[in-house]
Amino acid sequence: MISRHRRRKSSALFIKGSKDFARRLSLASKAFIQPPFSAGLSAPVCKPKPPIRKSSRAFRLRNIELDELYSFAGEKHPDEQESDLDEVGQHWTHVAMARESRLMLEVVVGPRTQESATKLVEGAANRLAPGCWPLWSSDGWELYLFALTVVFAILIHFIKGKGRGRPKDSQVVPDPRVRYGQVIKQRAGRRLVSVTRRVVFGIAELIPLKQVSTSLLERLNGTIRQHVVPLHRKTRSFAKRRTALDTQTQLFKSYYNLCRKHGTLKSKTPAQAAGLSDHCWTLRELLTFNAAIISKIT
User: Fold this and answer.
1) What is the pLDDT of residues 151-170, one digit of tens each?
2) Residue numbers of the chain with a pLDDT score lower than 70
3) For the stretch 21-46, what's the b/e string if a residue is b when 16 or more beta carbons lie within 10 angstroms of its beta carbon?
4) Domains of the chain: total
5) Which residues of 163-178 are buried (b: 16+ CB within 10 A; e: fewer)?
6) By the 8 A CB rule, do 137 and 63 touch?
7) N or C: which terminal CB in the chain sees fewer CB atoms within 10 Å?
8) Rounded distance, CA 62 to CA 147, Å?
9) What residues make up the domain containing 96?
């Protein structure tokens, strides 16, 4: 049942923050393999970069939703000189979910930066079957756009024509098969004023705007806050370090996918709906899975 899909490794674009994104992406493009070309061509030549396939189980999905929850570890505004910012401070919980099966594909706990967004998108892309190009939906956070560009990037080389002057610089653009839409919400104080849907990547005429939605994942955010104690609002049980918050969130991810039945899935778990399991796991099964292999007790 378990199989692995691998692909040829290419240069990884891992951008921290959105500052000077275009400049860094242009410099990183030099590490890509130059495609063959003919000196007589004047049209751009591109080399596609398929997403990485490293997951033990590949899925064919139609819609993936991306969103994040605000949280912190230790204190909200730590001292930059005295505190370990990798473990203390504002660390958001980034989630990617398959809409059809409600399966949580990836969870990344970390600061709200380009690095976290790229980890989330890349982790979800690793679980896609070859040739699967789902519709990605998120809010208006621009770093998701940059993350999709990095993970599904192709390098376009422009060939020098017969005219005078140098050819255009190489450009890194998202694969034309990538489809991505955003849900933009405008608020006046705490009141929602308007909701706008737009297609960012893909042919707008072929993507119904009704499919661009994050409503199911936003509902899941409430379930996550209910079950993960450090994510409760105005609580004394906040996580003291990011590692503890990440551990509890990953445990809930396994519990939600394998043990928790979903009402809209006809009392099935997300893992059953996705074809990962043939039964609803008990908590004992989850906590003792591969216990004989990883346990140090003899």
Assistant:
1) 999 988 888 777 787 888 88
2) 1-57, 81-82, 291-298
3) beeebeebbeebeeeeeeeeeeeebb
4) 1
5) eeeeeeebbbbbbeeb
6) yes
7) C
8) 19
9) 21-294
Residue 268 tokens read as 């099935």
Residue 39 lies in a domain: yes
H and E: helices and strands count for the chain? 8, 11
Tokens of 219: 């509902």
DSSP 283: H
Q: Is the pTM of this model over 0.70?
A: yes
C-alpha to C-alpha distance for 184 and 63, rounded to whole angstroms: 18
> Beta partners for 96?
66, 106
Q: Is residue 58 part of a domain?
A: yes
CB 214 within 8 A of CB 67: yes
The DSSP secondary structure of 199-215, one letter per residue, reads EEES-GGGS-GGG---H
Any domain includes 261: yes
Only one residue has tokens 């899941």, namely 220
CATH of the domain at 238: 3.30.420.10
Q: In what order do the strands lie in the sheet with 92-98?
A: 104-110, 92-98, 63-69, 135-138, 179-188, 191-201
Report the SS3 class of residue 235.
coil
- The answer to whether 135 and 180 have CB atoms below 8 angstroms apart is yes
The pair of structure tokens assigned to 119 is 């980890």
